[in-house]
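Running this now, will post back.
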Amino acid sequence: MKRRQFLTCAATALAAPALMTRRAFAAEPGAPLPIPAVMEIGPDAGHTLTARNGTRAFMDGAPSPTLGYEQDYLGPLLRFQRGRTANIDVVNRTDDPITAHWHGMHVPGHLDGGPQLAFAPGQTWSPELPVDHPAATLWYHSHVHGQTADQVYRGLAGMIIVDDPDVDAGLPDDYGFNDIPLIVQDRNFDRSGRMSYDLGMMGVMQGFRGSEILVNGAIRPKLTVPGGLVRLRVLNASNARIYDFSFADGRTFHQVGTDGGLLPAPMGRTTLQLAPAERAEIVVDFADRAPARLVSRDVGSGGMMGGGSMMGGGGMMNGGGNSDSTFEVMSFDVGDAAVTAPATLPKTLPSDIRDMGEPVRTRSFRLNLHGGGMMGSMFNTLIGRDGQAMGINGDSYDMNRIDQAMQLNETELWRIDADMQAHPFHVHGTSFQVISQGGRAVDPQQVGLKDVVLVDGPTEILVRFDKCATAETPFMYHCHILEHEDAGMMGQFTVS
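Update: finished.
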């Protein structure tokens, strides 16, 4: 039996670290990395994803109220196959409306799981998803307007892997052994050790940042890996934090994939920056059998209210607090398991990046912080002309307003800029190509297919849609700092 088949039946148990508090001291790392159970989704009935209330003790003796799909916190890894319909029943057993947004999937608007498709407690949503997407690492999460940040923070999220049966990339693919999902999140914990979401003005304006790092729901865990090539599928599922990953020993790794699929060739790196909702697949060689620590530089979001360092609701990150400091994400040691193929990386990869042609029109988007400055009285300065704190092109999100109308199979150039700080910009329903970022030209072959781009200065992307979205169930574009999205930094569009 392959490890993938075994792990479909049972997930690794989550061992809770010792009780700590973020204000007095940091939690001790080292719990085993939980490996999410796999739910293979195909055309048959019987695949159920139940959103439910839960309780999780992230620290000993300190149970926290949580949300999860099929479990107390987060959800199973959903595995789809390209060219094969995926039938799934999403059941709401929580106390509030939810959705299941298939982030990054190329599906029509009525299957996308955006805010218009929220469904109430006790109801079931049963989409039939035509899987028309290259092999990639995607994710899913609730997307209810005004509640996305809270629901994702509490656990309504999980990873998706799309497999392409016609493509053999020559990469490690033994799930749970040399092919590992890493869902990276930052969370705050109160003095009792319970997870907290104490959102204040700074949390709204900069996005909420926690003072402890969780990977797959465990605080700074440890993973035992084989002494060879290991593929790490890294998802930044934090509400607002930007990570700049590296290994503490400075080792080189190779990036093989990004949001929308594989790169044309492995790219050697020593650092990897991921903004909220971005994904990357990297391959690390542990043949030296030396233990390793995955760390991140403490990256600021830039400019706004002097917010350079990444601080939690009540304290700095694991003793960090400036852009020159680093904090630990997780650690690795090398076990005695036999090394499995492949022994070397392929020189090229079956990427799906194609020439999109010349754009037929240009659209401009500016991500706005309303209020005309920060000198007024606290929250009053945060409210824009239409009653929300943030917007795009001067307007906050309105579920009853269509902001843009796109045409099927036409390439467009989108120019995006932002007020006062960097914002991760996400587009539903497609993958796009980044051609400039921060005012500098970008080679799409180096960056790969994307559905999130960090807008830190003028940014240009080429977009093309081959899935329809009606006014009743439109696609979204928005900042993926979830507090910004909830505060109105979102628009919606049709494709016909």
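Confidence is low (pLDDT under 50) at residues 1-25, 303-316, 318-322, 371-387. More later if anyone needs it.
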